[in-house]
## 1
Amino acid sequence: MKILHFLILFFTFLLITAQAQDFKNNNDPIHVKGKSQVRVENNMTPDQAREKAEELAIINAIQEAFGTYVEQEADITLQNGTISYNIIGGTKVKGEWLKTDNEPVFKDEIEEQQNGKKDKEKITWKTCNIEGLARRITPKAKLNASTLRCTMLDCETTSFMDGQNFYLYFKSPVDGYLSVFIDEDGETARRLFPYLNQGNESAVKITGDKPYFLFANTNKLNQFDVRADEIELFTYKALEYNSIYVIFSPIPYCKPILSDASLLPSGYTLPKAISTKKFQEWLGDCRVAMPDFQSQRIKISIAKN
């Protein structure tokens, strides 16, 4: 009986060890590949077509590696304000994209379709092949972030005019560290938060369940010990598309190397900056190293009056 009892304990130990190892492996980053094909519509710019094709290729890679997402209430919201899915291009998936290897490969394919008895229509398809690191999604804090044209939630928008003020609303269910960047047309990423007067901080400690309105200086809304940087958006183009990155982690993280802020002849100050390529590399490295690290992207447009 003692031998039988020992064998039961031994095999139980092996089973628990194997399950723990399998769980660990399931959360390790893996190399994945994806591909997509997007029809280029007349109202799409080349950059928009590339971006859409890249998003769909990433979704394809994650779905191939971790399966498709089935929307069930039990799978969506977990305890303590966390969620167990990721949203890419409006699609819920079971994994998260960590970083891209090299550059995605894009190609245009032209197809002719019969349009009536004699006329033929040329259709352009944008294809994308992508490789990178991904990981099965783990429960993360469900963040609330929205871009605003005034300091009220009713002012939520992603469409701004040249010279218009910009504000950001943020709320997290847990304490953590927050920073905000703006990617200007895929060329330069500028750090908007922490504020310039907060020195060389990588991120600012925020309190869970507490609403924050960033870039506002009224006594009621500025919840930090320094004067807020007031943000005014501008563009030299008829229409420009930028991306706001809201970056959060329950644990501290280090910022990337940034250039100094610069004062323009007009009196405006350009925030500290980094190239978009290096910014994306930094985001990827942080995602790989910290499973709870999040970067929520909000696309905005700026139009000339």
## 2
Amino acid sequence: MNERILVVDDNSDLRELAETILKTQGYDVTLAENGKEALGIFDQRELDLIVSDISMPEMDGFALLKAVRSRDAGAAVPFLFLSAYSQKSNLAQARRLAVDDYLFKPFDARELLEAVRVRLDRRRAVKIFDTREAHLQSVLLMANVIEARDSYTGQHIEQVRKTALLLGKALRWDKPSLVILEFGAILHDIGKLVVPKRILNKEGEFTSEEWDIMRKHPEEGVRMLEGIHHLKPAIPFVLYHHERWDGKGYPEGLTGENIPIEGRMLAVVDAYDALTSDRPYHQGISKEDALEKIEAGSRIHFDPYLVKKFIELEDQLP
């Protein structure tokens, strides 16, 4: 759904100009002539941002902002003032009422769009973090189901989660992306729920038939998650973490940067934990030896840039 913006101004030319600019970026724009009309609209529909003039009849921008902030639904809605330069002295009052930003008239399209984009980006982050704990609990419940079938996988999930967050922060991913990364790291092996226990816990080499079953787990994981709206952004971690830089991975055999960054990133983290952990068919190796193997796999198994960034984390890795 397109983000919903309310534009409030008693000047019809400015209202329509703002509407035209915002609609070029696909925003759903509603117009109001004054604060009273705007407040009625606010009480009737969910909004993602309000852009308002200050001086208006019936209810000015300050009164509108105060009324919006007094409502439970209005505490986190970004509010942007459009102000004549002569009103600059009034902006201290706007700040006391918790305005998010302001633009001086006349404004140009670039200024308006940038101010709106920044505020909406922050609102998205707030929404994600408001629901993160509830979603994280449901994700951890799923992880517990996986762990109940395979104790190795449960330990692996937690180590991959911690290590993936280290790499994500080193890559300067923003906070919403780190939330999605955390979910993706926890759920990346969820498709193994459909793999028979006799294969999961087998000691020794898999047969070709067993490999065929095992290689289906990324796609099975996607089928499990695609109907859960808040987990859909984690799907690239689940689907692509077994792709290889040289195109010899699965399930799609993608190459290089054709592999989504989520898959390239988790491939490095997943391999590191696999190398350093004890498994039914091999003993874990040291951190130093594992990093040497990962470096040797640069441009074969792994994205060379991500390998470089990962090795830089050596002192922080478990």
## 3
Amino acid sequence: MKDAFILGKGALYTADSEVTGLNNNIIVCGGTGCGKTMSIVEPCLMATFDSSLVITVTKRRLIDKYTPVFRDSGYNVKVLDFTSPDKSETTYDPMLHVSSYSDIDELAAAINLTEFRMKDPYWENSAKDMLCAEIAAVMMMKPNPTFADVLKLHEELASRDNANDKIFNDIAAKHPEGCYALTKWLGFRDLTEKTYGCVYSTLSAAISRFFTEEAKKMIARGGNFDFRSVTDEKTVLFVYVSAASKAQHALADLFYGQLLKVLVEYGESRPEGRIPTPVRLIFDDFAVGNKIPDFAEKISVFRAMGISAMLIIQSETQLRGMYGEYDAATVVNNCDTYVYMGGTDTDTCRGIALRMDVTLPKVLYMPLEQEIIFRRGSEPFVTERCDLLFAA
């Protein structure tokens, strides 16, 4: 059997983009409690037979229900638990996916992203360079470095003293011609103790958002998930995050940023220009939490690489609030399928009314059991949600 999308009554679509001419990116938009997971996500899980899946879930019920189903179908099923990372069966260490200077730079930049930009970018840029120096130094000093090693080095560099210079002097002695780690560190050698402390504190605050004590234990434990496994064999990875606590959201988004980078680069490196096993990403509460790095850029190449994404959002306003006006529009424009399941956000309703060429009240007061399906190149389709919502 081939993969399909079950989006509502009478709305069964093949996932073969060569047949449809469309990408398989889907936005599912609807207010809280409208049944997005039960009416859209679960039917699509049951219609998956060939692709690998990476599924963000906020409900343990889905993991318990579908793990045996997929295992019986020959899938390798893994769970990456960001709600209790120290107890997760599968673990994640961002250092395992760093193999170049550009990887170091991107990882440091992602960790140093702040929700509120500082007026003076010096502190953020300096914190990023400090983390670049720390990561590069650990990679030069350790045969199989982990991010736990980076965090340990960071603690050792807490004060502006001779110990700092000794660590990098040892590297300089082995690399008299210079190296990336030294280049990044040179700017900190002549700083006053106060300025050094401010840069260090800025970096420490950024690190603490990503690496809680539970996350540090997960990294130290090993058993990390291999990103390439989803492309080489049929795999389902449940990424379990908490809807109530945001403590691990930043680390989960860092995980997705690196995963997408690895998948896209792997697809680009292959002669056929795509990954061997299609990978479908399902994001529950996509706009909640932090911003996945460069998502708006990467979604535009998903189809060519054999990747697709289903994005579950509550409103387009919510999406714009997290990703900004331009990136949110880019994300929406790169989804050839859009399922609207109702809601009270008037800006979203106006957009739907414009696409439907109907009045605003027609959309705002849409019956609860109805949904509207937009597929690029086709007239909008008004239908009812899957019965699974009402059978549960």
## 4
Amino acid sequence: MTGTLMAGPLHGAHNATLPLKRSFFTMNTSEQDRWSRVKGRLRSSVGEDVYTSWFARMDLEGVQDESVRLSVPTRFLKSWIQAHYAERVLSCWQAEMPEVHRIDLTVRSAVRPVAQTKEAPAPVETRRVPAPELRSTATAPVSANHDALGGSPLDPRLTFASFVVGRSNTLAHAAARQVAEGRRGDPVMFNPLYIHAGVGLGKTHLLQAVTWAGNSGNERKVLYLTAEKFMYGFVAALKTQTALAFKEALRGIDVLVIDDLQFLQGKSTQAEFCHTLNALIDAGRQVVIAADRPPSDLESLDDRVRSRLAGGLVVEMGSLGEELRLGILKSRVAAARTHHATFDAPEEVLNYLARTITHNGRDLEGAINRLLAHSKLNNQPVTLEMAEREVRDLVRPQEPKRIKIEDIQRIVARQYNVSRSDLLSSRRTANVVRPRQVAMYLAKTLTLRSLPEIGRRFGGRDHTTVLHAVRKIESLVSKDTALSEEVESLKRQLQE
């Protein structure tokens, strides 16, 4: 019997196989006819859109005794079906074959030969194409846009249609839409497009939305990779002596989307990323990148990479305001209703959640999931009292604002009527030296940056220069009341 991973009535078989009592893959016309009827039941049960998204690429491998073996092309698809539709698939089979009590779901190889069998025509085209040419659609999940390049999984929920736009993400959304709607041969407006934000503020959502939309037209090759996946692909190519093919394949992409760039490590990997970045940009191909900080703060990256990244459009996605948080909650409730029509969250509950859960969008989604689970499992309506009880651990104390050196330089320059470039210059006039020293002092006291890093961010100065400035201002604020008040005012402006 094939080794299995237990997952309720729907199991995932390992690739390794053990001897069978008789062939598991004995297939005949009657079984294929039965499979066609099962798919018809499944389509009627879940609806055309859900069927297209999750079941159009599921194939029958064989039937034996009480077991049915099915396959799908990606691990992501297998995991999703196991988690959400296990009982549904089993019940559709049992309607045709009551003796079936087990479904084994496997991931088929992209190069495995497929037996040609006659099958009732389905409204969805399921013809397989070679992995490098595989296109994703706006509704079907894929393990990668281009499996041969080791692309990262895409979540079919993360599209532009489900992205909630607010004041803090308007520019990032508009720039991402501009990229996604471009066509092959169009001049590239923002290159690279670099989006940075804290955890749970929508970076990954936007990048995957760009990938879905870019690939849906079947015109451009759009590849979505996490930095970790890029590193893995490059190292694997080196080990198998296919690095040249890996590089050529990457540079044949029309739009390269890289997520979580802050995790890119290793000199050789960073060098290869830099070469790929330069090659794509110089060839007029689009690059979209997301990270949790601006390029100048990615201290682990080579200076050449940081410089090239900063040369594009750098957009920050700010924290979620209460109005935007409320919009996200309403969007998540509407999405939950597509599968649970009776689910509802009163306005006062959503207002409470938007007011008290301020950390990030993932906490908001988690809150809706908790209310949905509690309501369904206990057969109780959602109330304010229930919400207060169920999400109390998500209500976190307000964290102090993370102050950036760029903000310090901007506010100090405005306070003393000089330019930011003056603070970074080598000018030694009194009207520039004092503001520069104050800015360095604030950078040391309000951020976690080291003295060498602060010096680098102030025009490449030595760390001893920064230390001198910090000690100078410390000494002066203890004696000069006016300067002390100025510094305190600057601190309040930075922390607002």
